[in-house]
Amino acid sequence: MKVKSLQKILSMGKCGIIMLCIHCLFVAPVSARFQKQEGIVITGKVTDDKDGALPGVSIKVKGTAIGTSTVADGTYRISAPVGAVLSFKIIGYKAKEEIVRANTTINVVLLTDQQVLDEVVVVGYGTQKKSDITGAVTSIPKDRIDNMVRTDVVQLIQGAAAGLNVTTTAAGANPESGAVLLIRGRKSISASNDPLIILDGIPYNGSLSDINSNDIASLEILKDASAAAIYGSRASNGVLLIQTKQGTKGKVTVRYEYLYGIQRVANFPHLMTGQEYFEFKAGVVSPAGII
C-alpha cells in the first residue's frame, strides 16, 4: 500500500514531489520531538567525596518545575527527557549538573564547598567558622560594606538582614533622634527596644550616626537568645557587633575614594511664610487678645 501511495504521489509530477518534501520536513521531526518529550526514568545515588550517602539533595530538571530529592541512603528517581540537564544542589556542597543521555543511571559525587564552611564570623567572644555557629547570626556582606554608597551606618544595614527593621525619623519627631532599630520586633512596651551596640569589643552608648561608616571592617548581628549568654540582659533586644579597620603589618596601602550623589529629604516640613503666619495668628486671636 505504501509503495502504491508513493507511486501515486510521484505520478502527480511537481506537486507530488512538493507534498512529499513537506511530509518529510514536518512529520518526522514532530514524531521525534514527541519521543524526546516522553522522557526516561533516571535513577542513581548521590555521595560525597568520601563515598558517604547524601540525603536531602535537591534535584531539578533545569528550566522546568520537575524535581525531587534524595532519600536517606542517597538514592533518587526522576523522569527527564534525553538531553535535559539535571541540577544537584545541597547546602555546604558545590552544585553540579549532569546531562541526561541514553543511560538510565546517573551517580553523582558532590564536593564540599570549603568557602562557605570556612567563612569566619565575629561573635562576642572571638571569631568562629560559620559552620560551627548554632545561634542566629547575620553578617553584612563585605562587598556591601566596601562598595555601597552611603552617608551613615543606618543606610548600610537597612534592608541587609532578615529580622532587622530600620525606621527613619517620623514626621514631627526630633530630627536628631536618629533611626529606630528593632531586631525581631518589639520586646517591651515601656522599656527600650534598642539593640546593644558593641564597637571594637566595647559597649557603645552613642548614636549609630556618629560612627564613620567608612571605618567599618565587619558588621554582625546577633538575633537570638544566645547573645544574652555573652552580654547578659543588655542583649535581650539583640546585638550589633561592629569591628573597625585596624592597622596591619606589611606594606603601606593608600586608598582614595571619591563619591558624589543627590538625595532628597525624607520628611521635609512645610513652613509658613511671614504673611501666612500673620494671618494664622490673626485668625486665632480672640476679641480679648488672648490666643
Automatic annotation (TrEMBL):
Subcellular location, principal: membrane
Subcellular location: Cell outer membrane
GO cellular component: cell outer membrane
Pfam families: CarbopepD_reg_2 (PF13715), Plug (PF07715)
Superkingdom field: Bacteria
Bilayer topology: Multi-pass membrane protein
GO terms under biological process: siderophore transmembrane transport
TonB-dependent receptor plug domain location: 130-239
Keyword Cell division annotated: no
Entry similarity comment: Belongs to the TonB-dependent receptor family.
Protein name: TonB-dependent receptor plug domain-containing protein
Organism in which the protein naturally occurs: Pedobacter planticolens
